[in-house]
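Quick start: read one record
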Amino acid sequence: MLATIFRCMTDPALHRIPHLPLIEELDDPPTLEETITAIGQLKSHKAAGIDGIPPEIWKKGGVVLPGKLHELLVCCWEQGNLPQDPRDAVVITLYKNKGEKSDCSNYRGITLLSITGKVLARILLSRLVSTIAEENLPESQCGFRSNRGTTDMVFVLR
């Protein structure tokens, strides 16, 4: 998956990136616990994506539904190929209820993503943040570190 991202970058940009040791744990397939945690972090009462499955179905699915999703994610992980449905998104424009409706700047867009894609993205994000942020970010980057925020840095400065 990362190989396709790096193919898009130019060679000079790649040479400026510091070489860090390879983190083998990031290549492991997602665990059932990671999948259950990611499903639990979904926000309720949000619009369903193009698959039409709202987050409440996944959250109330008991033990069986997260297990089946985990099997699908592991299969995709091992094959290195994700079906198109979790990657697709529908962009909908909503009127802000101010100004003229004919002005495009009075609209905002929302993106409806598949819940399956959101779960996979949450798994990847939690892995990256827990693995990379604590070891590679400087102490001053509190906005990107767990249990810290930018208000902590403002307090330190004052």
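Residues 40 and 60 are 10 Å apart (CA to CA).
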